[in-house]
Amino acid sequence: MLELFGKAASINVRKVLWTLDELGLDYTRHDVGSGFAPTDTPQFRALNPNALVPVLRDGAFVLWESNTICRYLAGRSGREDLLPIEPQARARVEQWMDWQATELNTAWRYAFMARVRHSAQHADPAAIADSIARWNHLMGLLDAQLAATGAHVAGDDFTLADVVIGLSVQRWRQTPIERPALPAVADYFARLQAREAFRRHGDNGVP
């Protein structure tokens, strides 16, 4: 039985939950993280030395890093539609997954912590404005990509790139900031909303 450690409100845990749902896999989830079982314990650090969720346990095999967990699950299930085998098609999907984890996440973090979490350590108005500007700029790049494909992030078909970026789009829409009109992103979000797994795990209003 697959075991997932992490609270369902976490955006990174929700990536894995959405992937599990798309794959139709059975699993047990353990509430771990802020407000639940702590991560900064010897027991949890034995699973992930970074003391972060999510963590997946598949028998004796333990894996952390949300995007990597999603890749593992798709590969484990032989779902080439979600993670292609052909090198160039796979690289295109992974390129956008890595962009989400590095560029996009880095851009929105300060603004999100300020406007949603109301963190006292993220109260510098100039830093908030800079984070919002960078976030909106990158969302504009995504809008151009979606306008070019006319469908999903990596091309015509739904892939893991849409799982990780779809959740980031939801966060952008939910965070109280000024946003430009991005019509391709809006159309894309409407397409995601047609997916039951997204409605359960991606568009539940939890930032």
Automatic annotation (TrEMBL):
One of its GO terms (molecular function) is transferase activity. Residues 1-81 form the GST N-terminal domain. Pfam families: GST_N_2 (PF13409). SUPFAM superfamilies: GST C-terminal domain-like, Thioredoxin-like. InterPro entries: Glutathione-S-Trfase_C-like, Glutathione-S-Trfase_C_sf, Glutathione_S-Trfase, Glutathione_S-Trfase_N, Thioredoxin-like_sf. It comes from the Bacteria. Transmembrane segments: none annotated. Residues 86-207 form the GST C-terminal domain. Signal peptide: none annotated. Keywords: Transferase. Belongs to the GST superfamily. PANTHER family: DISULFIDE-BOND OXIDOREDUCTASE YFCG, GLUTATHIONE S-TRANSFERASE-RELATED. This is Glutathione S-transferase. It comes from Stenotrophomonas panacihumi.
